[in-house]
Design brief:
Strand 9 and strand 10 (about 110-115) form a beta hairpin. This protein is globular. The chain has about 120 residues and is an all-beta fold. The chain has one domain. It is built from no helices and 10 strands. This is Immunity protein 50 of polymorphic toxin system.
Length: about 120
């Protein structure tokens, strides 16, 4: 297991677009203008709770119980999402973390994995 990123914010699934296989988890700060999006692109499988309270940790894993990656030209990332009281899972081609701040500041790209996909 390799830790990718962590936050002390609570997150929830904000959006899943079937046609683009895109999942967005959102964690708010002190206001609705201060939030972090964890975006998965090319989602093949997900196992999540409606609310992930108390902070999250994203870790890459080699295997996940019950998941068999499909044959595909691009290898899929297997990411466990851990929070106090639970563990979720997402298999996707790409994950990125974007911080949005209040006051009209441009969004900040915090993480892109795999890095070459930037």
């Amino acid at each position: 297991m390799s830790e990718l990123w962590s936050s002390d914010r609570s997150f929830h699934p904000m959006q899943f677009t079937v046609s683009h296989s895109r999942l967005v988890l959102r964690g708010f700060g002190d206001s609705t203008e201060d939030y972090i999006d964890v975006e998965f692109i090319g989602v093949d499988r997900m196992e999540l709770s409606r609310i992930m309270s108390g902070g999250i940790v994203l870790r890459t894993v080699e295997t996940h119980e019950g998941y068999r990656p499909r044959e595909s030209p691009r290898a899929l990332l297997q990411v466990e999402i851990e929070w106090p009281g639970g563990v979720g899972f997402v298999a996707a081609q790409l994950v990125r973390v974007i911080r949005h701040s209040a006051g009209g500041v441009d969004p900040e790209l915090v993480l892109v994995e795999p890095e070459r996909a930037e």
